[in-house]
């Protein structure tokens, strides 16, 4: 506990709105306590656990796909006026958060009317001057600016906080994908990756990576649709996602880190967090080479990997990152150019170009003076660009040709500062210039403006060019933020680290750092494995106990408490022995064909080995230095000849004695291999394997000491190639002497061990043709799993399909193995001529589905038999022999009169077509087929010419972010689809196939899909997309057939329908929903009638959610779902404790929830007594709400859809009970709006009340969803889009209601701008207190009941001593003559609402406040929300006597002077006096004598404030020295003597002792929020509360030496298994700062009036809350808070007694957390 008195400190609090930042700026507005509301996010993010989370996370929570923190969404902050001074920087969750600038155009201050008048006059005068100028000057150049297509970039910097080399990081497969934010379809982009060292330069392979820069460029930008989602992934990393990045105006820059929760290393199971489950998985894999758990990619899962997981588990953070603005998008610049104020009358632009071309053209633009004058510093060429709205920039980039371009120039900026235009000139060439770099024949002149500036006009003032006649500019860019070149600041880590090797030790030293208390040295034997640590208080250390001759790596960090600096540069050293090694022992010789392998045991202290060998019986030794290897393979030896060898070990001290001799003889080996097909084989004489093949440089020479590249075509299975390293190039390139027609090859791995064949997994093959000029041109590439492995008698080979072509001159092939399999090898390669048999079989049919014949019956029979004989009797290999024989059988059957059915009835489904509705979903169409991954599925198709039809494979029971594969485009005719493995799931791999199509010829598509009932199976499917065209009987006929199909299927597969079996699947497709769920669950109690009702229920759900969002009108009878995409609800593997989640293109549900999706009932079946409907419950509507939510207040605004669905009864929506009613949420809702504190409510259901009350207030019986129907139409149209979230919501809501809703939104904690308030005043006054509406209020309004008439009376206000605690309780009693129609009463204190109650009494605990008069009144609210006038106020006086024992002092009086002398000169604490038996006393003069350290001092006070409650008593309290007369704060003095003047004779005098303790939250503004700036509470640099800290502030009366404050929280604890909620009250983790005020005389009173700051430990709170966080409660903050003041009996104690406490108050939501500034006065 920090509770020291702090001298000379006065505090004022300044608060502005806050939330989790995205791109925003704030500044201190004044020096009083105020609060402002949150602002909408320009870009939103879902963390991965957040669950986009966020990583993303959303950020997000466990009920969301954790790709997405989601986040995810981060919100901007409102601010009073534009910040034009702060330099933007990135949020750093673990350190001090820094506030970057807001995106331009948001949150500006509206000038006062006076200022406006002056500005308008000035503008009028300027306009008149301009008119005069136009009359006298020649006509100005007219600009014609048109919209342009733009592209932009998204840049991500990843801080690599672990010591990993570039070579290692490249193996971690870190990459970024970009997709459409709404459709989640991948967007083509140019992705570049750069690995940077600590100086910002590109790394070499062995350098440590300080950061990775990933840039996605060529992204379409400049429109409202330019919104993207990024996902950064890496093997073993927590996926980071940012869900909505807008490139409408600026490029975006994001910084994330591996030491934060944005991109943490250690998430091996991919669940979005690093936790104990990851630790257990890695521990279980210890000692293996399982790549999934080998985080540092050293080939073995070991303790280093465990340490990374452990460090990842300790990482804390928000999971979110800040999106900064980069370069402004060219389209946005052009649209913002002020044509009228861009005066080009003195400028000539060549080639009919205009000023806009500076931002859009790729060719250079030439400028000159219109008068052809010379360019000079005295007469520069000025190119002005004026903007309609100020452009935020910190850097200007001008590209000019390297030859003939600009040499010198000035930038003249017209900048907005404090509402005024200021002009400043920045000359090129001063310190403001950051760079002059060359790029493709041009110079890029980069001018750093010194800070972020909002520029209204910029003039490029050219002063010198090569010819001084023209200025040539290629392009201009305005940049708001950039990434620093060096990822780490040099000063923030130990410098100049040196390492000196000793024997079994290394000594290190480095430059001492300032402001650190010690250092840690991390070290280990690999660069990625520095897990050992030693600490030191000095800048030097010797580390002992090391192994000699083993290289050790070291980094140093500075420490101060728990803080650690960045790591130093890495150094290394190798301890050296002080004597030579002993002779090697344990020699062994292994015989090979024409080779021997020599090996021996390693010798201690050996640095390397010298190997000697010779033919036995000869004298000449051959030597080889093998370094520290302990084996050597020698080839090109003679079989049958004996060789002998010996070894010497050496180190820096000398060479060991020679070992004993060992001997052995090579011997020939014969290996049998497979008999390959001979028919159609291309002669090896026509084939050459290239010596520069990648595999030639990747050879395991120990296994193949005599390898020659030609061995793979020598026909000898005893020779082979074996890969040296799986991550290196393993490809072979074969050239053909003449072009060949081919479609497959045979690849024979190493023989003698069949696992070299069976362990191969996939391959890549590329074919090339030779052009006339002798170059090779790529034909095509196939990347596929290996499906044809031929094994017989212990031999085996692989058949690899080639892209079919008749002019192949080169083939490049690369084979890969399964994880953990033996190395890739190649013994022989064989190639074969193309066989035309498959094409001849296809020619039998006249259509693409192979359901109609081309020839007559007789011709068909003849051709079939000839082809069958060829297929069955040939020696050639056929890739799909069974398929060809089946096709021949089909042709024969058709000729005999049989029919083959094809699948039709497909639709066009496109997200683009739905853009008009502002909503998209899934476009998948079911096919009724599931297939195992790795299998081939044959699809015969008729595809309209020029149309694109794709097949999309899925993974059954897949992960939320890995269930859908890449689309495979179909061609007319035969298609052999290889089903990819989508994810490494532990369940059966494979799933359903779907079709996508978005053209206009859906009725012309037909398919015939072949299944084998083994690897592919037809599953039941119900296609009701034509629901609206069908009669009821036709609908039920389809459903009946499906029910029968389901029952038969389940019976036939009864033992194969496990929860993870791909066969346990069915699809039910309606116009608006696609249910992809387990068939076994659907079949449970399934009937035609029950399923028909279930689909009607889905139509009800569809009607409600689409009416709510304004996609359709409110006419239920005419309702038809208008969109093409639809909600896809799928059975998916759950993560965490979730049982369903939303992910944009689908909603995932668990197994136990799936069956209920076919068991709903429509509202038409509701009984009169029902209080709930059968529309699938809260959860599904909640997830649909996530996918449809336009407001982005996660877990709040998506629940609007849940409430609408829950209350839908087919009528006026008043008959059913909502969750807000059943869970008694309204009491908390009413308390929130009664307190009216800044910021949204932290409880999501309380905050949901704000949105629901608008429905309750304005929706009528005939249109019960009309308010939000109109609201969302306006929202999606972009209405009021220039405003932040709070103001935009208020503006649209007020327009829909046609009411001034200022007070409503202010009550809910929103801060509206003066501009918004002015607009809202134009609507009618809302006379009701709609913030006090509940569900019954709407029922009463529609029924015309609940209006109160009568009189409200405040009967009494009394103060009594509190029972069981210090202080007093003020109790109000009140009544209303029409109480039957009263909902409740609003309590006002000092004219401000503080509480709401539904009873006739209210009690407020005042604590121990003293010397105070409190004023109360009451207002009544009736059951329709009408609010009465306040009652007349009543006062109550709060004061305490606390009389000092008269035995402690002597009292005497002479005339009107009374003298008090303390006995034994022992000072007593006195706070005031009490005189009884007096009247008409106006003032008393008090002279107080104090004694401090033996020095006596007098203080004179004039006492005028009488706090007595009767006329015969004068009671006054002392104030601090120098206080003015109005200062009522009590000051306690330790006095030895007191003299009182003007005391009436006969009066009875008593002394009032020390005042009791008290504690209170700040009454005005925010009591809890984030600290905007770091607050220095002490004298040293460590005595600082960092910016961004979550703090609670208030006042106290007490002694900071003996008091401390504890803040309690009331938390909503959710049992994730049952969904039930309970309230938990406990202390919030944190520490107290008690700030004391020192008076003018320097003496601190025993009792001080001061401020407390309670700093919440967010990490500890996050740990406590994580197990209870789910989709319904994403915040770890409490719902309510209470401050408790404790007092101890001595300074060293920490267990005190309670002396005062506050009432409970609401806590704001994390996303709208106010910002608090603390200032010294």
Summarize this structure briefly.
Helix content is 15%, strand content 34%.
Question: Could you characterize what this model shows?
Answer:
The chain has 1721 residues and is α+β, with helices and mostly antiparallel strands. It is built from 25 helices and 89 strands. The strands form 21 sheets. Strands 1, 77, 78, 81, 84, 85 and 89 form a 7-stranded mixed β-sheet that branches. Strands 35, 37, 38, 39, 40, 41 and 43 form a 7-stranded antiparallel β-sheet that branches. Strands 12, 13, 14, 15, 16 and 18 form a 6-stranded antiparallel β-sheet that branches. The longest helix is centred in the N-terminal third of the chain and has 24 residues, at 113-136. It is globular. The two termini are 25 Å apart.
Percentage of helical residues?
10-25%
What is the CA-based Rg, rounded?
41 Å
Strand-pairing-aware structural class: alpha+beta
Number of helices: 25
Mean pLDDT: 83
Q: Which residues form runs of ≥5 with pLDDT under 50? A: 1-147, 430-439, 1667-1674
Q: Tell me the β content.
A: 25-35%
Distance between the termini: 25 Å
The coarse overall form would be globular
- In this structure, how is the largest beta sheet organized? 7 strands, mixed
Report the count of strand segments. Answer: 89
Task: Note the topology.
Blueprint: E1 11-16, H1 113-136, E2 150-159, H2 166-171, E3 175-180, E4 190-196, E5 211-221, E6 227-233, E7 240-246, E8 250-257, H3 276-284, H4 303-314, E9 323-328, H5 330-336, E10 347-349, H6 357-360, E11 365-369, E12 381-401, E13 406-417, E14 420-427, E15 433-439, E16 442-465, E17 470-473, E18 475-479, E19 498-501, E20 505-509, E21 518-524, E22 532-536, E23 540-544, E24 552-560, E25 563-564, E26 571-573, E27 588-592, E28 595-599, E29 608-615, E30 622-627, E31 631-634, E32 643-651, E33 654-655, E34 662-664, E35 687-689, E36 721-722, E37 731-748, H7 755-758, E38 760-770, E39 776-785, E40 788-792, E41 795-817, E42 825-826, E43 828-831, H8 837-842, H9 857-873, H10 881-895, E44 925-932, E45 936-942, E46 950-959, E47 962-964, E48 968-969, E49 973-978, E50 990-996, E51 1006-1010, E52 1016-1018, E53 1021-1023, H11 1032-1052, E54 1066-1069, E55 1073-1077, H12 1079-1083, H13 1088-1108, E56 1127-1131, E57 1140-1142, E58 1147-1149, H14 1151-1154, H15 1177-1188, H16 1199-1207, H17 1219-1222, H18 1226-1235, H19 1244-1258, H20 1266-1277, H21 1285-1297, E59 1299-1300, ...
Parallel strand pairs: 2-8, 53-54, 55-56, 56-58, 59-60, 78-89
Antiparallel strand pairs: 1-89, 2-5, 3-6, 4-5, 6-7, 8-9, 10-11, 11-17, 12-16, 12-18, 13-14, 13-16, 15-16, 19-20, 20-23, 21-22, 21-24, 24-25, 24-26, 27-28, 28-31, 29-30, 29-32, 32-33, 32-34, 35-37, 36-42, 37-41, 37-43, 38-39, 38-41, 40-41, 44-50, 44-52, 45-49, 45-51, 46-47, 46-48, 46-50, 54-55, ...
Helix pairs in contact: 3-4, 9-10, 11-13, 15-16, 18-19, 20-21
């Amino acid at each position: 506990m920090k509770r020291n008195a702090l001298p000379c400190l006065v505090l004022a609090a300044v608060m502005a709105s806050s939330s989790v930042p995205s791109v925003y700026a704030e500044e201190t507005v004044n020096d009083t306590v105020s609060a402002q509301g949150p602002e909408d996010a320009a870009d939103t993010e879902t963390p991965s656990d957040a669950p986009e989370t966020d990583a993303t996370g959303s950020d997000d929570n466990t009920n969301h796909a954790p790709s997405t923190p989601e986040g995810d969404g981060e919100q901007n902050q409102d601010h009073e006026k534009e910040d034009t001074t702060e330099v933007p920087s990135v949020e750093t969750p673990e350190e001090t958060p820094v506030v970057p600038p807001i995106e331009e155009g948001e949150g500006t201050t509206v000038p006062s009317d006076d200022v406006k008048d002056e500005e308008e006059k000035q503008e009028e005068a300027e306009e008149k001057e301009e008119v005069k100028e136009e009359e006298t000057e020649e006509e100005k150049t007219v600009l014609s600016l048109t919209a342009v297509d733009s592209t932009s970039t998204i840049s991500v910097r990843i801080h690599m906080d672990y010591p990993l080399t570039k070579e290692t990081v490249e193996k971690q497969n870190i990459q970024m994908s970009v997709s459409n934010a709404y459709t989640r379809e991948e967007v083509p982009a140019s992705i570049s990756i750069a690995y940077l060292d600590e100086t910002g330069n590109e790394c070499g392979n062995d350098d440590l990576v300080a950061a990775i820069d990933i840039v996605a460029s060529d992204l379409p930008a400049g429109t409202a649709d330019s919104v993207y989602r990024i996902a950064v992934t890496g093997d073993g990393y927590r996926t980071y996602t940012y869900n909505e990045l807008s490139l409408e105006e600026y490029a975006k820059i994001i910084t994330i880190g591996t030491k934060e929760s944005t991109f943490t290393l250690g998430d091996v199971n991919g669940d979005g967090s690093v936790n104990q489950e990851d630790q257990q998985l890695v521990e279980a894999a210890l000692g293996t080479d399982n790549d999934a758990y080998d985080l540092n990619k050293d080939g073995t899962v070991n303790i280093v990997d465990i340490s990374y997981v452990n460090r990842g588990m300790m990482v804390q953070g928000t999971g979110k990152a800040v999106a900064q603005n980069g370069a402004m998008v060219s389209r946005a610049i052009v649209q913002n150019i002020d044509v009228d104020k861009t005066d080009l009358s003195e400028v000539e632009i060549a080639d009919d170009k205009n000023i806009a071309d500076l931002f859009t053209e790729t060719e250079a633009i030439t400028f000159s003076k219109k008068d052809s004058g010379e360019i000079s510093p005295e007469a520069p060429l000025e190119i002005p660009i004026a903007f309609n709205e100020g452009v935020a920039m910190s850097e200007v980039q001008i590209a000019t040709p390297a030859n003939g371009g600009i040499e010198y120039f000035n930038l003249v900026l017209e900048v907005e500062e404090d509402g005024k235009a200021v002009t400043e000139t920045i000359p090129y060439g001063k310190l403001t210039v950051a760079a002059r770099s060359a790029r493709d024949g041009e110079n890029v002149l980069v001018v750093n403006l010194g800070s972020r500036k909002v520029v209204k006009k910029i003039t490029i003032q050219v002063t010198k060019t090569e010819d001084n006649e023209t200025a040539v500019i290629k392009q201009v860019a305005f940049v708001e933020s950039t990434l620093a070149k060096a990822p780490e600041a040099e000063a923030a880590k130990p410098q100049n680290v040196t390492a000196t090797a000793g024997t079994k030790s290394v000594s290190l030293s480095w430059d001492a750092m300032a402001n650190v208390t010690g250092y840690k040295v991390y070290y280990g034997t690999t660069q990625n494995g520095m897990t050992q640590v030693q600490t030191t208080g000095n800048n030097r250390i010797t580390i002992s106990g090391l192994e000699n001759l083993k290289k050790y790596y070291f980094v140093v960090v500075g420490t101060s408490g728990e803080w650690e600096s960045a790591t130093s540069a890495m150094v290394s050293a190798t301890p050296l022995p002080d004597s030579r090694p002993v002779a090697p022992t344990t020699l062994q010789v292994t015989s090979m064909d024409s080779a021997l392998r020599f090996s021996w045991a390693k010798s201690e202290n050996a640095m390397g080995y010298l190997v000697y060998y010779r033919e036995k019986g000869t004298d000449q030794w051959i030597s080889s230095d093998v370094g520290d290897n302990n084996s050597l393979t020698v080839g090109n030896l003679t079989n049958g000849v004996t060789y002998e060898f010996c070894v010497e070990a050496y180190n820096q001290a000398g060479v060991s004695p020679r070992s004993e001799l060992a001997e052995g003889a090579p011997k020939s080996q014969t290996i049998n291999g497979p008999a390959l097909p001979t028919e159609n084989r291309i002669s090896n004489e026509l084939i050459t394997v290239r010596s520069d093949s990648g595999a030639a440089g990747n050879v395991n020479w120990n296994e193949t000491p005599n390898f020659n590249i030609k061995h793979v075509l020598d026909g000898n299975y005893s020779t082979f190639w074996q890969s040296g390293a799986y991550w290196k190039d393993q490809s072979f390139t074969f050239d053909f002497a003449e072009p060949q027609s081919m479609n497959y090859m045979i690849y024979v791995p190493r023989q003698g061990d069949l696992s070299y064949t069976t362990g191969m997994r996939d391959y890549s093959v590329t074919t090339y043709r030779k052009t006339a000029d002798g170059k090779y041109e790529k034909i095509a590439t196939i990347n596929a799993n290996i499906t044809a492995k031929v094994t017989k008698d212990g031999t085996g080979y692989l058949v690899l399909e080639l892209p079919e072509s008749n002019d192949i001159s080169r083939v490049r092939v690369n084979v890969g193995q399964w994880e953990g399999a033996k190395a890739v090898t190649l013994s022989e390669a064989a190639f074969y001529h193309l066989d035309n048999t498959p094409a001849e079989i296809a020619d039998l049919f006249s259509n693409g589905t192979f359901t109609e014949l081309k020839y007559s019956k007789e011709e068909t029979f003849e051709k079939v038999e000839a082809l069958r004989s060829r297929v069955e009797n040939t020696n050639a290999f056929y890739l799909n022999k069974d398929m060809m024989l089946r096709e021949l059988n089909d042709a024969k059957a058709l000729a005999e009169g049989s029919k083959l059915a094809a699948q039709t009835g497909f639709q066009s489904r496109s997200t683009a077509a739905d853009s008009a509705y502002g909503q998209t979903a899934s476009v998948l169409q079911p096919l009724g087929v599931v297939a195992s991954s790795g299998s081939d599925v044959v699809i015969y198709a008729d595809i309209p010419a020029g149309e694109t039809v794709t097949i999309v494979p899925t993974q059954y029971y897949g992960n939320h972010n890995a269930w859908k594969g890449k689309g495979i485009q179909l061609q007319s005719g035969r298609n052999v689809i290889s089903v990819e493995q989508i994810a490494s799931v532990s369940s059966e791999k494979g799933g359903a196939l779907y079709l996508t199509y978005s053209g206009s010829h859906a009725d012309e598509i037909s398919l015939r899909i072949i299944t084998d009932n083994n690897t592919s199976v037809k599953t039941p499917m119900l296609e009701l997309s034509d629901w609206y065209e069908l009669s009821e009987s036709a609908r039920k006929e389809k459903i009946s057939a499906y029910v029968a199909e389901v029952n038969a299927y389940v019976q036939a597969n009864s033992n194969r329908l496990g929860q993870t079996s791909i066969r346990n699947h069915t699809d039910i497709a309606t116009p608006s929903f696609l249910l992809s769920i387990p068939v076994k669950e659907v079949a449970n109690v399934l009937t035609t009638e029950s399923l028909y009702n279930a689909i009607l229920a889905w139509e009800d759900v569809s009607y409600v959610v689409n009416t709510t969002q304004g996609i359709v009108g409110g006419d239920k009878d005419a309702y038809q779902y208008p969109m093409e995409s639809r909600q896809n609800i799928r059975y998916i593997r759950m993560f965490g404790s979730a049982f369903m989640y939303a992910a944009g293109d689908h909603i995932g549900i668990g197994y136990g929830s799936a069956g209920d999706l076919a068991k709903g009932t429509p509202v038409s079946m509701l009984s009169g007594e029902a209080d709930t409907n059968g529309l699938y419950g809260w959860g599904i509507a909640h997830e649909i709400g996530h996918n449809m939510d336009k407001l982005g207040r996660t877990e709040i605004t998506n629940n609007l859809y849940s409430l609408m669905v829950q209350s839908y009864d087919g009528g006026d929506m008043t008959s059913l009970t909502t969750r807000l009613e059943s869970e008694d949420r309204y009491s908390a809702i009413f308390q929130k709006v009664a307190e009216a504190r800044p910021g949204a409510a932290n409880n999501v259901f309380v905050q949901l009340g704000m949105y629901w009350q608008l429905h309750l207030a304005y929706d009528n019986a005939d249109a019960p969803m009309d308010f939000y129907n109109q609201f969302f139409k306006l929202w999606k149209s972009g209405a009021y889009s220039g405003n932040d979230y709070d103001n935009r919501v208020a503006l649209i809501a007020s327009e829909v209601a046609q009411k001034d809703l200022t007070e409503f939104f202010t009550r809910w904690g929103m801060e509206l701008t003066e501009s918004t308030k002015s607009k809202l005043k134009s609507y009618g006054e809302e006379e009701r207190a709609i913030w006090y509406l509940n569900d019954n209020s709407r029922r009463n309004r529609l029924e015309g009941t609940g209006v109160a008439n009568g009189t409200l009376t405040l009967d009494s206000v009394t103060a009594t001593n509190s029972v069981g605690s210090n202080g007093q309780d003020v109790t109000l009693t009140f009544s209303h003559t029409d109480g039957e129609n009263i909902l409740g009463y609003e309590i006002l204190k000092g004219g401000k609402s503080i509480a709401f109650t539904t009873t006739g009494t209210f009690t407020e605990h005042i604590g121990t406040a003293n010397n105070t008069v409190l004023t109360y009144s009451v207002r009544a609210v009736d059951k329709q929300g009408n609010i009465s006038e306040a009652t007349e106020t009543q006062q109550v006086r709060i004061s305490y006597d606390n009389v000092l024992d008269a035995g402690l002092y002597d009292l005497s009086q002479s005339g009107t002077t009374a003298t008090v002398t303390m006995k034994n000169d022992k000072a007593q604490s006195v706070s005031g006096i009490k005189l009884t038996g007096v009247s008409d006393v106006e003032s008393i003069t008090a002279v107080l004598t104090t004694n401090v350290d033996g020095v006596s001092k007098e203080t004179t006070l004039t006492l005028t404030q009488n706090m007595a409650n009767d006329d015969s008593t004068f009671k006054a309290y002392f104030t601090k020295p120098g206080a003015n007369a109005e200062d009522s704060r009590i000051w306690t003095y330790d006095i030895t003597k007191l003299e009182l003047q003007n005391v009436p004779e006969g009066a009875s005098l008593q002394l009032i002792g020390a005042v009791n303790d008290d504690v209170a939250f700040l009454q005005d503004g925010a009591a809890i929020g984030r600290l905007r700036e770091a607050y220095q509470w002490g004298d040293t640099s460590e005595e600082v509360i960092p910016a961004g800290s979550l703090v609670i502030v208030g006042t106290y009366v007490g002694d900071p030496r003996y008091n401390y404050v504890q803040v309690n929280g009331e938390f909503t604890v959710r049992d994730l298994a049952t969904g039930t909620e309970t309230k938990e009250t406990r202390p919030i983790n944190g520490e107290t700062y008690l700030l004391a005020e020192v008076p003018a005389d320097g003496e601190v009173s025993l009792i001080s009036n001061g401020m407390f700051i309670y700093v919440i430990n967010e990490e500890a709170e996050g740990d406590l809350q994580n197990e209870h966080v789910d989709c319904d409660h994403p915040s770890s903050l409490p719902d309510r808070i209470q401050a408790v003041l404790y007092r101890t009996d001595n300074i060293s104690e920490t267990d005190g007694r309670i002396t005062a406490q506050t009432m409970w108050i609401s806590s704001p939501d994390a996303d709208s957390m106010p910002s608090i500034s603390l200032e010294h006065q």
